[in-house]
Amino acid sequence: MRTTRRVKCSYGKPPARVPFIPLTDFASPVTMKKYGVTPGSATLDIVNKADRDKEIMVLAKIYWGDPREKLIEAIDTIPLTCLVMGSRGLGTIKRAIMGSVSNYVVSNASCPVTVVKHSPPK
Predict the structure, then answer these.
(1) How far is CA 70 from CA 32, 41, 74, in A?
(2) What does DSSP say about strands 21-22 and 56-62: parallel, antiparallel, or unpaired?
(3) What residues contact 19, with CB distance under 8 A and at least 6 apart?
(4) How far is the C-alpha of 68 from the C-alpha of 78, rounded, in Å?
(5) Which helix (H) or strand (E) holds 70?
(6) Strands 56-62 vs 113-117: parallel, antiparallel or unpaired
(7) Is 36 within 8 Å of 53 (Cβ atoms)?
(8) 3-state SS class at 100
(9) Per-residue pLDDT tens for 17-27?
(10) pLDDT digits 0-9 by tens, 69-109
(11) Is the dihedral of CA 13, 15, 19, 21 positive or negative?
């Protein structure tokens, strides 16, 4: 039995409505051009590995706008029962000026949020 996981990206200019896109279609050049996105190869590698190794179906959903607001919107509209997100590890000054997406989501989400801290390569 396969379970379903969803991946969200926020790039480019929005079309009228974006459906959930199966991972196999999301990685195709035609789909990337249609939605004006270029997902990072590391992101695609991670979700492809999860799809293969954990036998889950990965679906992508593209959002445009402020990542803080769009993540909260996704939690409520999909709906998500939990969210795992990364942290870029900004310093105190940059975080104070730019704001922290992960701090905002942890404070405003209606579901449990796990933040995975960025660790620089050794």
Answers:
(1) 20, 22, 6
(2) antiparallel
(3) none
(4) 16
(5) helix 67-77
(6) unpaired
(7) no
(8) coil
(9) 667 888 878 88
(10) 999 998 998 888 888 888 877 677 766 665 688 889 999 99
(11) negative
